[in-house]
Amino acid sequence: MRILALYPNSYGYHRVPTGLVILMTLLRRAGHTLDLFDTTFFASSNTDNDLREKAGVVKPVAMPFAYEGLSDDAVGALFRDKLAAFRPDLVIVTLIEDNYRYGDRFLRMVKAFDPALPVLVGGPTPTAAPMVVIEHPCIDYLIQGEGEEAIVEFCEFLEQGRDVQGVANLWTMRDGRPHGNPLRPFIDMNDLPVYDMTLWDERHMLKPYDGRVWRTGYFESSRGCPFQCTYCVNPTIQNELSSAGRFFRRKSPERTVAEARIHKERHGLERVVFCDDNFLLMSPAQFADYARVFVPLWTREVGLPYWISTSAEFIRRETLEMLTATGCDGIGLGVEAGGEWFRRHVLRRNLSNERLVDTFRLIHEYGIRTTANVMIGFPGEIESDIMDTIRLLRRIAPRSFDVSFASPYVGTGIQRVAAKLGLIELSDAPGFRGMAAEIAFRGRPTIRNPDIPERRLIEIQDGFADFVLDRRPLPETKVGVRGEHSLAVARLMETERLAPPQNPAARRRQGQSGEGSTKVTGVSA
């Protein structure tokens, strides 16, 4: 079968999407003919990196290649030419909310080209809100959760002319209503293939980092995160997939090292980025067992510097000793906000500022570069909360930091609360019902805040680096003076915390029976 993979990336952010490339690898292994339409380098530049450079949070780097800078019409013409030349039997798309609206135009082009050409989607947004996304008039099938086994079975059935309706994890529309099948058990990550980059532009491997460009490979050594942060979609995904087994899983150190070694040899990698939500999410005993194998293998077979993301709860001397011994030269940690009250009551993160200060100090003691990730533009935020974040960054003195606007992604606590309080516009279009009408984490906020005008938030973000680096004095603010809006957000977040989780299986049956409505108001489905 001829399968066209679509990667609708409008930001020019170059990095191989590991989920899609693994699916493509499995489908090629199953004997299908694959092609790819990747819009990344049709953009004018890496707009995400441009905005970070403008904000002064990264070192400017001249990329060793040019973007095409094509117009939307030109990109559309190329896509129609690809459809006509390749004549696919199926189009597959991995969707995240950042690219969903951009991808919508390509979905419509598929159906304009051939209304009978089936479209299959998957990814974080379809997994978090399957009953919403499957209503899109140009989407025929949706795989919820892990797609590695489901997509191979689906394509086998489709090619053989067999009924695909029984494929586990599959959602379709039946009699005008969403219908979702039961979930299959989570896969063993050690059974995943070493992914194949054959169809991908090698420019995806060129990553700016700390003032230079590196030939970089991206890998996952684990999946899942157990935290319940209100700004993240992981809690909703974990709930949606609860019947599939244990959410968090990890590859063996042998498998992780082998994959990096193979790509180092194939592609001449200079460094590695681990895409795990939390690379160090292990108990002390599990970590000791893991490090005993990982340290000698990585040192002997790979020997490249690497970057990880983790959280302060898992930073200890023994973890830093392992990271230093194996060449880890960068750690990203979520600080998110500097006010302890705000972090605890709105974001549902209970770390103290002293714990964060001690964590960064300890990492720096081992000579590892740190990146502190923070956000502004939350519902319930007052200006003194942002100033608390800046003061905390001054104290922890990270080697780099990133500031973005909080985004109301479907399935997150902040999206549900923002919707209830009328702080975001909600879409009513099929496939987008109840989702935020606009999503952005750079440039401008998309959540209205009665206590901080949008113009002021943009001014703060534009001057954020100057504030943190003490090149500009902090403005005076009324510390701790919270209005009704901020307190209302905290109360709603507490309601979110105390409310029992929705039962995904029950909601799936609800969709099958036709009870209720698939229109949502700030909820995932």
Number of helices in the DSSP assignment: 19
In terms of DSSP E residues, the strand content is: 15-25%
List unreliable stretches of 5+ residues. Answer: 509-525
Q: How does the major sheet shape up?
A: 7 strands, mixed
User: What sort of overall outline do the alpha carbons produce when their principal axes are compared?
Assistant: globular
Strand order of the largest sheet: 2-1-3-4-5-6-7
Q: What structural class do you assign from the helix and strand content?
A: alpha/beta
Descriptive account of the structure:
With 525 residues, this protein is α/β, with parallel strands linked by helices. Helix content is 39%, strand content 15%. It has 19 helices and 16 strands. It has helices at residues 18-29, 47-54, 72-86, 97-113, 124-128, 130-133, 148-160, 234-240, 253-267, 284-301, 317-325, 340-345, 353-365, 383-396, 413-420, 454-462, 464-468, 484-498, 504-513, and strands spanning 2-7, 33-38, 90-94, 119-122, 141-143, 170-174, 177-180, 206-209, 212-219, 222-223, 249-250, 271-274, 306-310, 328-336, 369-376, 400-405. Strands 2-1-3-4-5-6-7 form a seven-stranded mixed β-sheet, sandwiched between helices. A seven-stranded mixed β-sheet has the order 8-9-12-13-14-15-16. Helix 14 links the parallel strand 15 and strand 16 (400-405). The longest helix has 18 residues, at 284-301. The radius of gyration is 23 Å and the shape is globular. The two termini are 33 Å apart. Mean pLDDT is 91; it is low at 509-525.
